[in-house]
Amino acid sequence: TVLIVDFGSQVTQLIARRVREAGVYSEIVPFQSAGEAFHRINPKAVILSGSPHSTVDIGSPRAPQEVFDANIPVLGICYGEQTMCAQLGGKVEAGHHREFGRAFLDIQEECALFDGVWAKGTRHQVWMSHGDKVMEIPDGFKVVGTSTGAPFAAIANEAKKYYAVQFHPEVVHTPDGAKLLENFVHRIAGIEDDWSMSAYREKAVDLIRKQVGDKKVICALSGGVDSSVAALLIHEAVGDQLTCILVDHGLMRKNEAADVVQMFREHYNLPLILVNAQDRFIGALEGESDPEKKRKTIGRLFIEVFEEEAKKLAKDGVTADFLAQGTLYPDVIESVSFTGGPSVTIKSHHNVGGLPEHMNMKLVEPLRELFKDEVRVLGKELGLPDHFIGRHPFPGPGLAIRCPGGITREKLEILREADAVYLDEIRKAGLYDVIWQAFAVLLPVQTVGVMGDGRTYEFVCALRAVTSVDGMTADFYHYDMSFLGQAATRIINEVKGINRVVYDVTSKPPGTIEWE
Ligand code: XMP
What we know:
Strand order of the largest sheet: 2-1-3-4-11-10-9-6-7
CATH superfamily of the largest domain: HUPs
Strand content: 15-25%
Largest sheet: 9 strands, mixed
Bound molecules: xanthosine-5'-monophosphate
Structural class: alpha/beta
Number of helices: 15
CATH topology of the largest domain: Rossmann fold
Distance between the termini: 38 Å
Radius of gyration: 25 Å
Oligomer: single chain
């Protein structure tokens, strides 16, 4: 096992993911409990994550001393490098300017971390995101890589098997980063392969059985890949103790509720209940324009519906105590607040943060550690058909967060139509599987147009399409202009209420994929 000490970086799970890709099992623990976890896990190697903290601040987090006393390989990443230096006798200073984004690393020395990947004297793209700077490295370390902004961008103490890098090898923008992490766990720490998706499946099934016992479970099904995979996994674990519930909150895409029910009934023999709660959700959301309030209202109503359904399902003393969701890691990390965990809240995904504080049901979230593309692999492992697995992600709060400004039934209707036309064009152009996620957004702005001989004053529709691997970072999709022209013409001609279409060319970061 590799122990990953989490100091609160937004991308800590990506480290675990890369380690999994290398076939090795890892556990992430928050720095506060890392000392205790170290004794429990008895790891063969440790990785120290990045952090929004500054090592220069009084009381900023540190790695437990055990890590350096155990005579095992340690890799520090970004803040992890800084705290390693601070703890082993080097010096870190608060930076005057942040280095953020693409940088180039010059390899100064051969080193086990770079074996077979980067040779001395070559230069490679890496991803930086830091404010503070290492000024002096501890005794026994040598500089193995430098960048313009970071003279100690990569350092090593080969005798002790300590390595530290200022850049982030776990993100895709460091193209060779995964190989460096593979070198660390295989060549340096000598750990054998002990992780695979089928092993994960077995472990997850086992954990679900232990958690649920003989109680009933309700699975919040949306028809998306995540909740479908969660449902199958839970069904494998507890069979007919599971009931799936699809809530039609009136925020779904055109014909979606009916399509999902049909698709599911065709392929699976799971009990599935469709609850029509359109008026309840839209009634509560009408006029609401604050993105977090929208998310929280939707989360609260979802739970109300599930608790009501759970009551109905209770029979012969067997209660439905558990609510299963297809929550993924990015949903967790972007919702966890600074007080709950070490990272910063970006938005309350309804799967987790949007939920009310007090709810009677306990959560079952077997995909919490995984990323979207890993869930797709797990879906394949579970025999889910390809067209299921390839569906674009769709957020729990649905069209509500694609309708910035106050929500009205009329706007939702306009958006639903525009979205259907846009996706139809994407499918016709053969682009559905190339694009990671695409959707329309209805802006709360009206602009002037001319149609026929008349003046129009209608809404603006924004189109979004991104490529991504895991939803954590994304690039806008580079369409051919003629495609956009064609989609815009169709939307304006066919959807009453829209007279202008724009295309969103923002990547994530600094944007997010959804608009709210
Ligand atoms: P953002 O907008 O945070 O989205 O870049 C990343 C991915 O997550 C989806 N998303 C959600 N999924 N509940 C979900 O189940 C939510 O509340 C939620 N918010 C965003 C989003 O569609 C994208 O795929």
